[in-house]
Each structure stands twice: as C-alpha cells, then as structure tokens.
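Q: I have 96 residues here and want to know how they pack in 3D. Can you give me a structure?
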Amino acid sequence: MVTRIGTKQRKTRHKLSQPYRKKGKISIRQYFQEFAVGDKANLKIHPSVQKGRFFPRFHGLTGNITGKMKGQCYEVIIKDGGKTKALFIHPIHLKK
C-alpha cells in the first residue's frame, strides 16, 4: 500500500482563500446561525476558522441538516458518488 503524501489541506489554495476585503473578519451572525432539521445547506469552508471544518473534497456540495450534534456543530448528510455520508460541521462553514 502506498502511503498518503500531504495533509487534509493539500491542494486547497483557492478553496481556502478569501477576498481581500474579508480577510481576518468573522461574521458573528454567520458563526451563531441556526438551522432546523430538514433544511438544505451549502458547504463552504471559512478559511480563518479551523473548528468544525470538513474535508475539502466536499467544498461546494449541498446537504440536508439532520440534527444538532457535537456541541455547536450540525450533522449534515451528503451524497458522495453513490454513498451517503454524515459530516459534523460548524455553522460558519454552512450557507442556507
């Protein structure tokens, strides 16, 4: 078996970059936003917050909220190919 080269953030230069005017700023409204069970949410990584981040392959996908788990994080179900996967994501990385 070949060993994996790199980390979770490998090849994510453009996914983990922000526009110049938004660098260093965290929206409090977005950090504490609430979701209901059954809502659809778009997965977008906020690069300045490492807490509750998901694997970058899922950046840009849309999933369904199934509940609030793990403190502030939500459980989101997505389809990856033919499989359904459950992710635990902080609300700052989710958009309604």
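Q: Anything worth noting?
A: The radius of gyration is 14 Å. DSSP finds one helix and five strands in the chain.
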